[in-house]
Write a structure and sequence with these properties.
Shape: globular
Strand content: under 5%
Helix content: over 70%
Number of domains: 1
Radius of gyration: 18 Å
Distance between the termini: 13 Å
Order of helices and strands: HHHHHHHHHHHHH
């Protein structure tokens, strides 16, 4: 079940990243973050009430608060990077954050078998290669890479924190709700401060109409991200974090394939090879 939940995480994160990247090309990234998370708060609030999730309240929710504080910074950096550079290049680099939860798992005493270690190594190499040789190039590319590395560390920290925020399904709903409320508070504060300093929250010459017209896409991004966090937490609770984290970090391949299919972005040979290695690593992890 660990592999199944982790691969579902990859699918949903990959599609959420693709949708978020598209939205930031016409709406400021911070507005996309706040608006999409507001939708998630409303839906999760209803789920918590319906399932009685409030009964799982406890000190472990501080991990969810921590994830909620780190998440908006990571998402903002990542969406800005997606707006600057090709999705098929930026997204794979963002998965380097897998080093954080894998490191935590190893420090907590997890010792994957030889086959799983081989799968981790092959998958991580594949993920890096899927990013393509973009560390040198135009200034926009370099800025996109730096933003992506910042996002990667943040995503890895969120993965490590959310895995510790609950021990039951109802507790997970509450943890995700607390995380998203914190996201909205932190992101909303940042948006307010940026607007006071002269930044724009909406595209020039457009009002809230652009948000209402994009609401289905914003809802999809927010809810897919929530669902991915949930399935990752379930994967990490049911098996080694080192395995769950690597499998969950295959989401860039989903983003790259979506960009290839919808935006006609072309993958370089090294990126295609990286995607193939990542899939081989996945098979080793799933069967190790």
């Amino acid at each position: 079940m660990t592999a199944l939940f982790a691969l579902a995480t990859s699918l949903m994160w990959g599609l959420a990243d693709f949708g978020g990247g598209l939205l930031t090309r016409r709406i400021p990234a911070l507005t996309v973050v706040v608006a999409s998370q507001c939708v998630a708060v409303v839906v999760l609030g209803a789920v918590v009430i319906a399932t009685g999730g409030w009964s799982a309240w406890g000190p472990q929710l501080w991990f969810a608060v921590g994830a909620g504080l780190v998440g908006p910074v990571a998402m903002l950096a990542f969406y800005q990077a997606l707006a600057l550079g090709p999705m098929g290049v930026v997204s794979p680099l963002g998965s380097l954050g897998v080093a954080v939860p894998v490191g935590v798992g190893l420090m907590l005493g997890e010792r994957p078998g030889l086959g799983q270690f081989a799968g981790i190594a092959v998958a991580v190499v594949g993920i890096v290669l899927a990013g393509g040789p973009e560390l040198r190039g135009a200034p926009v590319q370099r800025q996109a890479v730096l933003l992506t590395l910042l996002a990667a560390f943040g995503f890895g920290a969120v993965m490590a924190l959310i895995a510790e925020a609950s021990s039951s399904v109802t507790g997970l709903f509450l943890a995700l709700f607390v995380q998203r409320v914190t996201n909205v508070v932190a992101g909303g504060t940042a948006l307010y401060v940026s607007v006071r300093r002269g930044a724009v929250a909406l595209p020039e010459g457009q009002g809230m109409g652009v948000i209402w017209s994009a609401l289905p896409a914003l809802a999809f991004v927010g809810l897919a991200d929530v669902a991915a966090n949930g399935t990752y937490a379930l994967a990490a609770q049911r098996g080694p974090v080192t395995v769950a984290a690597v499998l969950a970090s295959l989401y860039p391949i989903v983003t790259a394939l979506a960009a290839r299919g919808v935006l006609k972005e072309r993958l370089r040979g090294v990126q295609a090879a990286g995607a193939g290695l990542a899939l081989v690593g996945t098979l080793l992890l799933a069967t190790g």
